[in-house]
Amino acid sequence: MLPTLRQLEYLVALADTGQFVETARVCRVSQPALSKQVREVEEMLGVALFERARPRVMVTPAGKEVVRRARQLLADARELVNAASAWQGVRRGTVRLGVIPTIAPYGLPGLLTKLRRLYPLVSYSIYERQTDVLIEELRSGAVDLGLLARSFDDQGLAGVDFVEEPFVLVAPKGHALAAAGAIRVRELSGSSLILMEDGHCLRDQAIEVCALAGPPPATAVAAASVSTLVRMVESGLGATLVPATALHAEVRRGRGIVARSFGDSSPGRTLTLQWRASSPSASWFSEMADVFRSHYLELNATLPRVSGPKPRIRAAR
Questions:
Q1: Which pLDDT value is given to residue 85?
Q2: Is residue 284 exposed (0-12), middle (13-18) or buried (19+ Cβ within 10 Å)?
Q3: CA end-to-end span of the chain
Q4: Domains of the chain and any CATH numbers
Q5: Angle at CA 17, nearest 5°, toward 11 and 23?
Q6: Torsions phi, psi of 265, nearest 5?
Q7: What is the mean pLDDT of residues 37-54?
Q8: Residue 99 reports pLDDT greater than 90
Q9: How, if at all, do strands 50-51 and 58-59 pair?
Q10: Rounded average pLDDT over 57-68
């Protein structure tokens, strides 16, 4: 006797939430029915998969291995369905899209509207994840697509780099970096910037820019979001680098902030849409990457003017 796919979904969801109540809600099943199904799988396999602790359920060592394999089996089952749809030429079903936090608030608005118009039979589940987690979920099949920034280990993945987004420096008025005009990278040498906390690729990208200018600056403050970064700048704590698409939402007039572009040789990040190399939906996902590219190039019209040349998003080379 083998576990059903539905039972495997219960195991994975319980491992992710750590709570029977929340898992029952996510899976749209009663808690007694969920508990019965999980117990049935444990009895079938002859091993305890979860430790019923309070307030959270903990996955046992055996459970971690079973859940890992369950994720892969579920991913393979979805790809089986997707492969059949690909042969039919039909774009339907649910696409699970993972997005890193420094892209989600600025790139997604308007994009989902375009996707729904182009693919009316498709629904979307959006998951905000840091890069390392998103890459792992792509490989395991927990998400179908990843919208993120290079660089990362893309082993087992395929995708399209669609645009290059410039960085812009923002600094409080009166700061040493708040002069008028475009900023040059070498001006950052020795400066102390406010950066994202560990785990965010924007932190690593900013450090790379600073390294081009000279010795990496000391950083005493770390933030969990671009919005928090800019609020810290408004408070006078220091300067930072932000993606150009964040300017419209985060940098407001009258808040004592100066935004400076780097001109034509602006440092920035390459945005990419990634999927599993084995995905039967690769041709469709490539189509979607074209939509992402067009959407981002249209965002150039919304970028505010800054000190120096207006930043410009360009198609990836």
A1: 66
A2: buried
A3: 52
A4: 5-71 (1.10.10.10), 91-317 (3.40.190.290)
A5: 65
A6: -100, 40
A7: 90
A8: yes
A9: antiparallel
A10: 91
- 271-285 confidence digits (pLDDT tens): 999 999 988 888 889
259 φ/ψ angles, rounded to the nearest 5 degrees: -110, 130
Q: Which of 74, 94, 55 is nearest to 11 (CA)?
A: 74
Angle at 56 between CA 25 and CA 100, to 5 degrees: 70
Flag whether pLDDT at 36 surpasses 80: yes
Question: Please, are residues 63 and 50 in contact by the beta-carbon 8 Å criterion?
Answer: yes
pLDDT for 281: 85
User: What number of other Cβ atoms are within 10 A of residue 248's Cβ?
Assistant: 13
- Between 72 and 8, the higher pLDDT residue: 8
Q: What is the pLDDT of residue 147?
A: 96
Helix (H) or strand (E) holding 292: helix 282-298
DSSP string, 231-253: HHHHTTS-BEEEEGGGHHHH--T
Whether the link from the prior residue into 151 is cis, omega within 30° of 0, is: yes
Nearest to 312 by CA among 271, 266, 279: 266
Distance CA 70, CA 11 (A): 8
> What's the pLDDT tens digit per position in 246-261?
998 888 877 788 899 9
CA distance 312 to 183: 15
Nearest Cα neighbor of 194 from 177, 182, 180, 179 is 177
Identify residue 225 by its one-letter amino acid code.
S
H-helix or E-strand containing 39? helix 31-45
Query: CA-CA distance, 124 to 189, in Å (whole number)?
Result: 43
Confidence of residue 214 (pLDDT cuts 50, 70, 90): low
Is it the case that residue 134 has pLDDT exceeding 90?
yes
> What is d(CA 200, CA 209) in angstroms, rounded to the nearest whole number?
15
Is residue 43 within a helix (H) or strand (E), and if so which, with residue range? helix 31-45
